[in-house]
Amino acid sequence: MMQSLSDMLFTQGFGTRRVCAGLVQQGLVQLEGETVTDALHEVEVREGLPFTVQGQAWEYHAPAYVMLHKPAGTECSQKPSAWPSIYTLLPAPLRQRPQKGAVQGVQAIGRLDQDTTGLLILTDDGKLIHRMASPRHHVPKVYQVRCKHPVGVRQVQRLLDGVVLDDDPKPVKAAACVQTGEHTLDLTLTEGKYHQVKRMLAAVGNRVEGLHRSRIGALELPADLAAGQWRWLSEAQLVALTTK
User: Nearest 5°: phi and psi at 96?
Assistant: First the structure.
């Protein structure tokens, strides 16, 4: 697909069309290592096309799919109430990508509490957001749980059999539950109820002291992605994300 260089920058979140044209005309944009000053310069856009804006290396992606290692003490909200927003951890172009709706930029698929850490996926692909958020698809999510009290075999079995939460008479079951230590377990859920892990552990007589999401679908949080860091999803990772 052919686009003018300024239009390409606009789709990638580098500002209004006028701002993007100005960046090019001021010689602040390099395309595959070459400085281009013609805003109408035709570009054959492709996934992963490298370019640089004001010294910042970037890649063309349409749509954008990124993973973020959410640190503790952050909120998954555009308008946080008490803690910094996870969106402040992302570069401006990801936050400014144009959307048809009122909210610009990539959006988190689901939320994690402010004290929960781990894997978050953000995208501007509305179809993927809907698919991953829909309870019909039962996308498994693995949480590493640190409990206040020792974890017993009976607690694990109750989580597998199902517990009743205060807002729904229908029992909620863990898809899998594996004890990993005296006070720790890996809990797999396919639903996304409010404070679900904490409420399930409370229902079996324990208390969550630490919570970390390590996997969504078949996509694992990379060991080398530090808390607060983000990166593009590869094609293979995108496939893993949508594979149960």
Answer: -110, 0
Start-to-end C-alpha separation, the chain:
33
Point out the residues that are catalytic. 113
74 pLDDT band, cuts 50/70/90, is very high
Residue 184 contacts residue 171 (beta carbons within 8 Å): no
67, 133, 124, 66: CA torsion to nearest 10 = 10
Q: Which two tokens stand for residue 26?
A: 């001021």
Within 10 angstroms of residue 175's Cβ, the number of other Cβ atoms is: 15
CB 124, CB 105: distance < 8 Å: yes
Enumerate the H helices of 12-145 as residue ranges: 17-25, 92-96, 126-133
Whether 122 contacts 107, CB under 8 Å:
yes
Going by C-beta distance under 8 Å and a sequence separation of 6 or more, which residues neighbour residue 161? 171, 173
pLDDT above 90 as % of the chain: 81
Tokens 């789709």 belong to 11
Residue 17, token pair as written in the block: 């069309």
pTM more than 0.85: yes
Q: Following CA atoms 221, 223, 224, 225 in sequence, which dihedral angle do they give, to the nearest 10 degrees?
A: 30
What number is the average pLDDT over the span 107-127? 94
Using a CB cutoff of 8 Å and minimum separation of 24, what contacts does 129-133 make? 131/242, 132/216, 132/241, 132/242, 133/109, 133/192
Residue 72, CB half-sphere, CA atoms under 13 Å: how many?
Answer: 6
Specify the pLDDT at position 166.
82
Q: Do the bridges between strand 117-123 and strand 208-216 make them parallel or antiparallel, or are there none, so unpaired?
A: parallel
pLDDT surpasses 90 at 233: yes
